[in-house]
Amino acid sequence: MFRSSSRTLALVVLAALLACAAASGAGAWRFHHKNPQAPVVGLDEYVVMGWVGWDASWYARIAEKGYDYRPGEQSSVAFFPLYPLAIRAVTALGANVYQAGVLVSLLCGPLAVLLFLRWARRLVGDTAALHAALLLALYPFTFFLYGVMYSDALFLLLVVGAFLALEKGHLVLAVALGALATAARPVAPAVVVGLLVRRWEWKRARGERWSVVDLLPVLSALGFGFYVLYLERHFGAPFAFVDAQAGWGQMPGWEAWLKLPWFKAVFHEGNAEVKLRLLVHALLTGVALALVIPTFRRLGWGYGAFCAVIVGIPFVATKDFMGMGRYLLSAFPLFVTLALLLGDHPRVRQGLWALGAVSLVVLSAAFALDHYVS
């Protein structure tokens, strides 16, 4: 059964990846040829260009030149270091910085989805695990895992790997992967809390006593901690990545917490595209928050706590929900919860798969056309 599920998922992921690549390449070709003076490039370069946009330039800058920090302005310190380091390592093999970034995502993203299936099988049955994996593979913003030069694919691979290792009883490996994950994204509290509580549940289910060794998941914050120390040493500002958010208009405060900019954009100032974009991200955030409580009940306190924190951090930080659709990829246990809730609703599940498949292609093309998707 597992081989059949793995084969099915692998074929779906391959089909989704190829469809996203085609849409991305076509979108990049269209965007590129809006400028009649643009140089002619090869077909393979259009695909890469379609996966490079927006924050990709920041990762490229870090990989090539290192970090910079200008207080209160947009600065590269807002982006955590593991993904740029991976890009730099691949460029040493001969690829240019953009090819390297796409290659890292292209390798990590599909592998993360396949690894998700192995993890899910340890918690639920084969059928539910496959349904959940298909929901993840065809989730609209999963196109960020299929080659886009963003850190999401690397982070998801590491965090799913950490929890899979924990489920298998490999505590040291889980902590090591967790530490790498916290060097890729600023969500260390979620990883630490999730691994720590799940370890407690794991020991309790086996009737084993808790020991000091079981506190090792705290060390999964080392990736985050080393980056903070780096910022303190080089810029004298350990949390410069928070201050840099001011450059994007994302500063903590009551306006962000109440989402006043969202209401302003949706009901007063935004054009049709902006309104639709913000409504979609807000809707997905609402669905994710609604799934957190069922996750506690169905998957346990560890995964419930992980999802609550990893959804809560960007939810509190964002002023208008923008980007939440992509950030929710990190809350991967929610896809299992959704699959379980839809167990007796096959038509709804199939409808979500179909909607997701279409959305993947549309969003891939939109991203390549330089629309601000997430």
Automatic annotation (TrEMBL):
Q: Which residues form the signal peptide?
A: 1-28
PROSITE patterns noted in UniProt: PROKAR_LIPOPROTEIN
Q: What are the protein's UniProt keywords? A: Endoplasmic reticulum, Glycosyltransferase, GPI-anchor biosynthesis, Membrane, Signal, Transferase, Transmembrane, Transmembrane helix
Q: Which GO terms describe its molecular function?
A: alpha-1,6-mannosyltransferase activity; GPI mannosyltransferase activity
Locate the transmembrane regions by residue number.
97-120, 132-165, 171-197, 209-230, 276-293, 300-318, 324-343, 350-369
Instruction: Note the InterPro entries from the entry.
Output: PIG-V/Gpi18
* Name of this chain's protein: Glycosyltransferase RgtA/B/C/D-like domain-containing protein
Which pathway is recorded for this entry?
A: Glycolipid biosynthesis; glycosylphosphatidylinositol-anchor biosynthesis
Entry annotated with the keyword Endoplasmic reticulum: yes
One Gene Ontology term from the biological process aspect of the record = GPI anchor biosynthetic process
Location (main, coarse): endoplasmic reticulum
Query: Subcellular location, in the record's words?
Result: Endoplasmic reticulum membrane
Entry-linked Pfam families: Mannosyl_trans2
- Its topology with respect to the membrane? Multi-pass membrane protein
Example GO CC term: the record gives:
membrane
